[in-house]
Structure formats: C-alpha cells, structure tokens
Design a protein that fits this description.
Layout: E1 4-7, E2 14-17, H1 27-40, E3 43-44, H2 52-59, H3 137-143, H4 146-152, E4 156-159, H5 191-196, E5 200-203, E6 205-207, E7 214-216, E8 223-226, H6 231-245
Parallel strand pairs: 2-3
Antiparallel strand pairs: 1-2, 4-5, 4-8, 6-7
C-alpha cells in the first residue's frame, strides 16, 4: 500500500490511508506519519480494525503511555486504555466514562507531564450527533490581539482535575442521576485520586519541541486560575483566551 495524507480542513486534520495499524509499521512510514502529525495536528485513520494490544503497540511509537489517573474507567485488562461509552453493566453502573469530552479540554493538562497526544479508536458511533471537535492552539495563539499576547508572555496558569475547583462549571442534573458510579466527569473524586492529581502550574504559552511554534495552553475544563493574578482578573483573562481558542474557524 502507498501512504496517502489528505488534509481535511484549513484549521487542522488530515486523513491517512495506505497503512494498516494492526500490523508493524516500518520506520520510514512512521517518519512520514510523524511529520504529518506535526503539520496537521490531528490524523484520521479510516477503516482500521485493532485489538487492544495493537492499539497500545501503535500508540507506543509516539512516546511512553500514561494510564488515566482516575483508574475508574480504564480497561480492566489494559489500563493504558480509557473506555468512553454510555454502556452499563447488569447493575446499572457505567462501564466507561459516558460524558468525557463534554467540555473543551486538553487531555491530562492537569498532570505534571501532560500527554503528548491521544489515540482514539471508535468501535461504535451514533448516526447523528456525538461529534468530536478539535482546536488548533497554534492558530488560537496567533489570533490573539498583540497586546494580549504580550500580556500572557511569561505567565503561568493553574490546572486542576477536580471539576469542583473550577469556578465556571456546575454539573447538569442529568449527569448526577443514577447509581454512584454513574460514569460522569462529575462523579466525586476519591481521596486517592485527588492525591494523585494536585494542582499543577504550566506556562500559558508553550513552545512545541518539534515545530518550534508557540501554542496557547489553557482550556476551559482544567485551567482554573492564572498564577499570581487576582481571581476575577485572572478569570476574565482566561475567558478571553477560551473564547478565542473555541471559535469555529
């Protein structure tokens, strides 16, 4: 098969064909894929059929893997995999996280070493709705007014996993319905999970190690404050940055 990479939009995303991820991928092809990832930020691989082992094996080509720190909805046999599903067991408990991604976020930004990326494998998708959206944070940074870029240069922001610390979010009633293990991002965090996910501080603007480009690194879900700034002023600044980064274009 011949590798082909077709851009899908002006902002980000490309479709990758001509590679079977269930089989070993040679170094030359991996190099082309990495280059495409750095250019397009999001890669889509249609028509793939993977076992959990193959999913994990391909993911390892891009770096060491992190298991989700909550542990509650990790695959029982493959903790590197997080289950995103609305399915329930015989007792009505969710077998996965049913509303993960319902608020704009950057995966694991609340960890001391955030994820380089994520590899999602869709087993079943609805015919209507359920869309997953992505944002180009290079473009978000570039779109900021010059005075805002100067204002955030050198500033750090605080990231927190526990949504109860987030000043702008509150749980919808439906998210809290059902048994205790209702598979929602709003489920209460245990003391052990909170101990594994203390507040962390990251630069609001990060320079990508491969591309050298500046990207905005704040998100509505996990970024709760600007370090060293009064709460109201910091929140106003963050809301400006969120609104810019979430624009459709």
């Amino acid at each position: 098969m011949t590798l082909s990479i077709e851009p899908r939009s002006d902002a980000l995303g490309a479709e990758v064909r001509g590679v079977d991820l269930s089989k070993p991928v040679d170094d030359a092809t991996l190099g082309e894929i990495r280059d495409a990832w750095h250019e397009h930020l999001l890669l889509i691989y249609p028509d793939q059929t993977l076992t959990p082992e193959q999913h994990i094996a391909y993911s390892r080509h891009f770096g060491d893997l992190q298991s989700h720190p909550s542990g509650r909805h990790n695959h029982p046999d493959y903790p590197e995999l997080l289950l995103l599903t609305n399915q329930t067991d015989d007792h009505g408990n969710s077998v996965g996280l049913r509303d993960g991604g319902s608020v704009w976020h950057s995966d694991l930004s609340y960890m001391a070493h955030p994820s380089r990326g994520s590899l999602l494998y869709s087993l079943a998708v609805p015919e209507v709705g359920g869309d997953t959206e992505w944002a180009n944070m290079y473009m978000a940074y570039d779109a900021l007014p010059g005075d805002t870029r100067r204002r955030i240069a050198g500033l750090n922001a605080v990231h927190q996993f526990d949504q109860e610390a987030n000043p702008r979010l509150s749980p919808p009633v439906a998210a809290m319905a059902g048994p205790e293990d209702h598979g929602s991002i709003w489920s209460k965090k245990s003391a052990a999970v909170k101990a594994r996910t203390p507040d962390v501080v990251h630069p609001m603007v990060r320079i990508h190690r491969e591309s050298g480009r500046r990207a905005l690194f704040v998100n509505r879900r996990f970024t709760i404050a600007v370090e060293g700034m009064a709460r109201d002023a910091g929140e106003a600044l963050l809301l400006e940055l969120f609104d810019c980064s979430e624009r459709p274009e």
